[in-house]
Amino acid sequence: MSTPQLQPMADFEDNVLQIHERLANCYGPFTTTPSEPLAELINTILSQNTNDRNRDIAFAQLLARYPTWEAVRDAPGEEVIEAIRPAGLAPSKGPRIQAVLRRITAERGELSLDFLRELPFEEARAWLRDLDGVGPKTAAIVLLFALGLPAFPVDTHIHRVTLRLGLIPPKTSREAAHDLLEALVPVELYHPFHLEIIQHGRSICHARRPRCESCVLQDLCEDFQSRAGTQY
């Protein structure tokens, strides 16, 4: 592997724009349809500490067994646990999902999160994060992908890749990365940049043995620059 010329990482905002442009060229435009907010919330709770395949199986089984969220809320707990077992941690996720549904009903009188669109953004975020089992990532996913609000979710791929790129300081926690990246990434790029970085993490910037020789971001990557002339 040839050794690239080392370049400073001073202009982070410019780097974000260059990263977006290059990854968009690699992976093409992403098109997604806004999801129903409550379904997105339940789906994201199921996704915690598991992969997309297991999450999707569990979500499909839950919908096949119960025609409405009211039915999920009122079902025997053991039945819900069994329905979502493929997602893992079902004895924790099942009661958590039902508790969230009951709280929404108690506070709103109906099972809907549409009211969040009418709240000030920080109030909507705080309301979601006050739910049991809803952290920064889960709340941000619902806000961005279901409600179209300006939140930037940070999953394990985004945390790893942005650390390596030097967009966030070393040892930044995943929770702290949310605020840092929301301040750095232009709001209009939240949606595509989120999906581009995830795809890059899955395709190239693996947790172990990243494929740096195939990466289009070598000259923008602080970690690669620090390892210039060496092999991973």
Extract low-pLDDT stretches. 1-10
Q: What's the CATH C level of the largest domain?
A: Mainly Alpha
- The structural class is mainly alpha
- Count of β-strands: 0
**Count of individual helical segments:** 12
User: What letter string, H or E per element, gives the SSE order?
Assistant: HHHHHHHHHHHH
Radius of gyration over alpha carbons?
Answer: 20 Å
Average pLDDT rating: 93
CATH architecture of the largest domain: Orthogonal Bundle
Number of spatially distinct domains:
2
Q: Span between N and C termini?
A: 11 Å
What quaternary form is this? single chain
CATH overall fold name of the largest domain: Endonuclease III, domain 1
What would the principal axes of the Cα set say about the shape?
globular
Largest sheet: none
Q: What is the name of the CATH superfamily of the largest domain?
A: Hypothetical protein, domain 2
Proportion of residues in extended strands: under 5%
Helix content: 55-70%
Description:
The protein has 232 residues and is mostly helical. The chain folds into 2 domains: 94 residues, Endonuclease Iii, domain 2; 110 residues, Hypothetical protein, domain 2 (Endonuclease III, domain 1, Orthogonal Bundle), CATH 1.10.340. It is built from 12 helices and no strands. The chain is globular, with a radius of gyration of 20 Å.
